[in-house]
Amino acid sequence: MKDCSICKYCDIDYDFDQEECDEYPIYICQKRNDTSLDYKCKDFEQYKPQKYKEKNTECDICEYREKCAKYSSGIDCTTSGDTKTHIIYPQDKCIKRAYDCTDFNDSLEHRHIDMDQWFRTVNMPTNEEIKAFKKAKELGVEIPKNVESYFKEYGIEA
């Protein structure tokens, strides 16, 4: 008896049986061979999956990751096979992507730009957010303390 499910060329689809209320697999051969049990397949090759190799993201190895983490929430892209957490930060909140790294380092050294001020500017509320905040205040909507303090931090009070 052969087992198509372990063949390198096998695609598995599922069909729903309404009477049994269950799904059952349907094997489809990429080489268009018959998948019935009594067929002797000439192309059968047992599938041997490659061992998973964990890779760091660009942000995992970046020298500015602590600063990015301080001012922005990253996207967790850790998979079940990973041994450590992997994070990606949004492009518009990343120093390395926003500036050419050598220019940014030069600017920091010569005090043309302050890293904290740059992050503060990048995370500043948009005009639409400011309008919505002021409109909500006018309408008497109760604003959560953390949202109110966020706007106060940028000198916006309604």
Report on the architecture of this protein.
This protein is an alpha+beta fold and about 160 residues long. Helix content is about 30%, strand content about 15%. It contains 6 helices and 4 strands; from the N terminus they run E-E-H-E-E-H-H-H-H-H. The strands form 2 sheets. A two-stranded antiparallel ribbon has the order 1-2. It has a two-stranded antiparallel ribbon with strand order 3-4.
Labels describing this entry:
158 residues; 6 helices; alpha+beta; 4 strands; 31% helix
Task: Give a quick precis of the structure.
By secondary structure, this protein is of the alpha+beta class.
Q: Approximately what portion of the residues adopt beta-strand conformation?
A: 5-15%
Give the total of beta strands. Answer: 4
The total count of helices amounts to: 6
Mean pLDDT: 77
Helix/strand-derived class? alpha+beta
Strand order of the largest sheet: 1-2
**Ends apart, CA distance between termini:** 76 Å
Q: Main sheet?
A: 2 strands, antiparallel
What is the CA-based Rg, rounded? 28 Å
Shape: elongated
Percent of residues in helical segments? Answer: 25-40%
Instruction: Name the poorly predicted regions.
Output: none
N-to-C SSE string, H for helix and E for strand? EEHEEHHHHH
